[in-house]
From TrEMBL:
InterPro entries: NAD(P)-bd_dom_sf, Sc_DH/Rdtase_CS, SDR_fam. It comes from Bacillus vallismortis. The keyword Oxidoreductase applies. CDD domains: SDR_c3. PROSITE patterns: ADH_SHORT. Belongs to the short-chain dehydrogenases/reductases (SDR) family. This is SDR family oxidoreductase. Keywords: Oxidoreductase.
Amino acid sequence: MTNDDSLTNTEKLEQQNPGMKTKLRLKQLKDQVIVITGASSGIGLVTARMAAEKGAKVVAAARNEEALKDLTEELKEKGHDTIWVKADVGKEEDINRIAETASSTFGRFDTWVNNAAVSTFGHAMDVTVDDMKRMFDTNFWGPVYGTRTAVKHYTSRGVPGALINVGSLFGDRGTVIQSTYASAKFALHGWTESIRMELEKEHAPVSVTLIHPGRIDTPYNEHAHSYLDKQPAHSRSMIYPPEAVAEAILFAAEHPKRDMYIGSQAKAITMLGALFPRLIDKLMEKIMYHSQHAERPSKPREESALYHAGYGMHDRGTNKGWLRSRSYYTKATKRPIVSAAIVAGLVAWGMAKRRK
């Protein structure tokens, strides 16, 4: 338990009556310490910058030490409290070191974001088992270690905190060419749902959110381990900016949310896949082979970020497609009552037009 003066009356009551059921109250970002893994590029980099701008103290973790130093210097020059921790999330001792650094520097952390990830592009029977295991170290075991560390921290303090796991569209729906990535994200989604139910049953002071990004314009493809002749890339499709994901992550840091989908694309394919699985199988077979690479040679596998840090301080990739500036669907899901009212209004308007 803690005597933290920043606790709300509701939180103090929850401490005094552990069995009582009340909605978790998370701190505002300006009062938070937020841990972000994979903070040296892409979604993690954008989230770190956005969190700092909103007043949060940022603990940036990644394998790329040089990029972390550059990010920390950039944020400190703007007056933000930031520290960095070089860490490989696939190693439990590194995850523990992130938590220890956050606690020794800021006394605590209030949100933990499991964001670090890497992919492998190649036919399932071509990818080596060693490469599969290495990817699971980062994409599955990393979030598991992070989850366990965050939950222990929040429950020991008795103060509500947020755990945010960044999943994927391909954690809801399998795909060709990225079979190992999809499998690791399926595992992460299952882990997140399971631990959420256990924590709710125990009335633990932990908000658990799963983020479901669609295709995002980051260096994710450039960092990938590729068995393809052509360079992995998002192409011929709708592609959302990393800011849309960061916005969802930081909303979940302040407001308990079960799931947040980035783009109607991610939500639609998940729903249609559940309702019409064979139809979506055929659709994925038709479009996913040619829409996951660019028309240029693939980088050598030894340059990938699977076994060592990729290049940092880049938030965008070299993807070609319909590059969106935002996700209106994600913005709408932040205010479900308002969005439901809008939909109801549109339905009523449509029915009225049909009667004329």
